[in-house]
Amino acid sequence: MMSLGDPMQWNAAPLALGEAMWLVSWWKPILMLAPLLGWAWVVSTVYDKDAARWYFKRSAWNIAHIAAGTLAVAVVLFMPAVVDSSLVFWISWPIMLLILAIDLGVYAFLRNKDERVPESARWTLDPAKWAAARAERKKRGSRHLASSLIFKGPGGELAVPAKDTPEFETRVTAEGLIQRAFDARASQLDILPAKEGVYAVTILVDGVRQALEQMPTAKANQVMDVFKAAAGLDLADRRRKLVETIKIGPPNGTMRTARVTSIGTSAGMRLSVLIDPEKQVSMRVSELGLHPNQEADLRELIADRSGVVLIAAPPDNGRTATFYAVLREHDAYTSNVQTVETEPQATFEGIRQNIFDPAAEGAEHSTLVRSILRRDPDVVGIADMPDEATAKEVARADVEHCRVYLGLRADDPLKAIQLFVRAVGDQKQGAKGLRGVICQRLLRRLCGNCRAPFTPTPDLLRKLGLPADTKQLYRKSGQVLVRDKPTVCPACGGSGFFGQIGAFAVHTLGEEERGFIGANDLTSLRNALRQKKQQSIQTAALQHVVQGNTSVEEVLRVVQGEEQKPAAQTQPAPAAR
To answer: Is the pLDDT confidence value at 540 over 90?
Structure first.
């Protein structure tokens, strides 16, 4: 035992302490710091800049990264105090690597899933795609592969013309137009006559038409022929309606579906390219934009499985998406579910889709409807009512044992009811089978990345009929602050909107309401629906304003019917929605 009074032992004490300090092998800190420094470099240099580029929540992500790094270091430093083993480092070190890898992987996964990141900017670990990208860059200057997009139709890939030829310039123009439509998140591209000798090119973005450019008729015909040639359509036929589906995309990249439609008009041929048509209409009821009580009313209608339900909307306002969403709520494996459609926009497993061809000899829409209704189906969806005879067949059918959904072009539920019963020709017979009516409009959804909050004035709340205690609403912005400088929002491209949401009126119709319809007493019908506290389209739209989904100005534009003026005066070809 060392004595405190022995000076020689005092001199030996530092040496003993020095020997005790060598408790960690010199290579273990290197193994710990090497991946930690690499992880820190990726987070600070790559991930932080990437979060700023796409306007993610940088502060939240930085906190998450710091927490992950702290946890990883804590595992290596403190696990030896808990686990008494000579192999503790080889247990804690892999755990540290796993934590750091999970942190990096979670960010990459969520980043690629975010709608603000375009397909072309998403990260991949597939070496084949890296090699394909390098090869594509090398070939970009090649004479025969100088185009940036591939057009692939039923006949295969459309050949690229040689450089320095008029055909190549036309191909580049066509690619540039569809690429601009892709970049703008457009759902449709239209090339159509604007005035004598001039064609207009427009796109439909979030339900609003935007002008791209104008071009001479001769050039427009050549550009339209590029799309027709890719689809395998007859280039000489400039009168009949021709439709075909193609794929468009970059070499070795993601191909997008496009439906090409050409049709002749008195002013000349027009062409429509519907982008991702099936994706536009493949939605579930919960994704349409219904408020909770409206969704409950709709599901009550669906569960009834008898009578007629009208589904109404103006053109390009989501009627097809709602039509399909409602049909998909019926179990196609335990029920006989069929549709009658002229141009199906999507296919669904278990649903039999009967296609009506108006160009066929002796074709009558009502005859096909009658034939299907007589086969004892459980559910029939009729996409359109092209004539009065179709309405009569629906009214005469045994709808007590069959549910019929009938699509109509109307902007108001009462107008839809009137349109149907007048087509039937007998108010009481038309009213007898009605169980409900669904009417809708599409509103542009505010961009969640740049929407601007504001405090509404009491006068504004009073005019809109909104609750007086509403503290905050939102309006469009289109800009974000980067280093205190306004910059165009990369998510919405400066429009202030991103996507669309439905404003619905969902009305269930009982004996009382059917009595009012049969008596053509619309005033009493309107009062009865109001007493049920079922929202009108305008009320539902204003609820979306309060929830921050859209703006007051957007509701006024849609509900008041403000016209969006495209560059061309001729109406474009109808979209799927």
So the answer is: yes
- SS3 state at 80: helix
Q: Which residue has the tokens 């072309």?
A: 120
Instruction: Please say whether the beta carbons of 503 and 289 come within 8 A.
Output: yes
| Cα 323 to Cα 312: distance, rounded to the nearest angstrom | 9
Q: For helices 27-41 and 58-82, give the axis angle rounded to 10 degrees.
A: 170
For the domain spanning 281-560, the CATH number is 3.40.50.300
CATH of 150-275, one of 3.40.50.620, 3.40.220.10, 3.40.190.170, 3.30.450.90: 3.30.450.90
What distance lies between CA 197 and its chain's CA centroid? 36
Checking if the pLDDT of 74 tops 80, the result is yes
Residue 231: partners with Cβ closer than 8 Å, 6 or more residues away: 153, 154, 242, 244, 245, 246, 260
Angle value at C-alpha 74, between 70 and 80, nearest 5 degrees? 170
DSSP assignment of 533-547: TPPPHHHHHHHHHHT
Backbone angles phi, psi at 454, to 5 degrees: -150, 160
Q: What is the pLDDT of residue 56?
A: 79
pLDDT of 85 reads 63
Per-residue pLDDT tens over the stretch 277-314? 999 999 999 999 999 999 999 999 999 989 999 999 99
How confident is the model at residue 438, as a pLDDT? Answer: 97
Listed in sequence order, the DSSP H helices in 233-345 are 277-281, 292-304, 319-328
Average pLDDT over every residue of 259-268? 93
Beta strands 307-312 and 403-408 are parallel
CA distance 175 to 150: 9
The helix (run of H) or strand (run of E) holding residue 81 is: helix 58-82
Helix axes 166-183, 217-231, angle to 10 degrees: 80
